[in-house]
Amino acid sequence: MDTTKVAFLPLVLVFAVAVVQSIPIVAAFDTTWLSRLYGVSAEGETMLRLLRHRAVLGLVGAVLFVGLAVPSLRLLAIGLALVSKVSYLLLFAQTSTATPKAAQVAKVDAVTVGLLVVALITTWVIPTVGRDRS
């Protein structure tokens, strides 16, 4: 197995997810993006705070970028991103009425979970295949 190509794959996948995960950061500072991203109005102080909190979760994207630069943190970054995305998917699955934008966010999260799982496998499992574990 060509480990050079396998080693490059998780970097590409993590980079792609980091970019997607970072987009909501803008909404933490510009509330007009909240409606664009999630399809709901930020009426009321509580709703605004909740939506801004969701936007701040975009910082997970920054952690993924750090994981790209610091290999020893890569698995931690992937794990954090997986927790973030799977938690949204679980919450979304419990929602009886969701906006089309919320459904779109769930679809993007589902795709990026798949990318992160492949990145996790190629980072952690595949490089150890064939190595002497003694």
Number of helices: 7
For the largest beta-sheet, the strand count, sense and barrel status come to: none
Structural class: mainly alpha
Q: Give the beta-strand count.
A: 0
* Helix content, binned percent: over 70%
From the alpha-carbon coordinates, what is the Rg to the nearest angstrom? 17 Å
Which percent range describes the beta-strand content?
A: under 5%
String of helices and strands: HHHHHHH
Q: How would you sum up the global shape?
A: elongated
Contiguous uncertain segments of 5+ residues: 129-134
Quick check: average pLDDT?
82
> Termini separation (Å)?
21 Å
Quick description:
The protein is an all-alpha fold. Helix 1 runs antiparallel to helix 5, helix 1 (3-22) runs antiparallel to helix 7 and helix 5 runs antiparallel to helix 6 (74-93).
Molecular structure report:
With 134 residues, this protein is mostly helical. It has a domain at 3-23 and 58-127. The protein contains 7 helices and no strands. The protein has helices spanning 3-22, 25-29, 32-38, 45-56, 59-69, 74-93, 100-125. Helix 1 runs antiparallel to helix 5 and helix 6 packs antiparallel against helix 7. 22% of the residues are buried. The model is unreliable at 129-134 (pLDDT under 50).
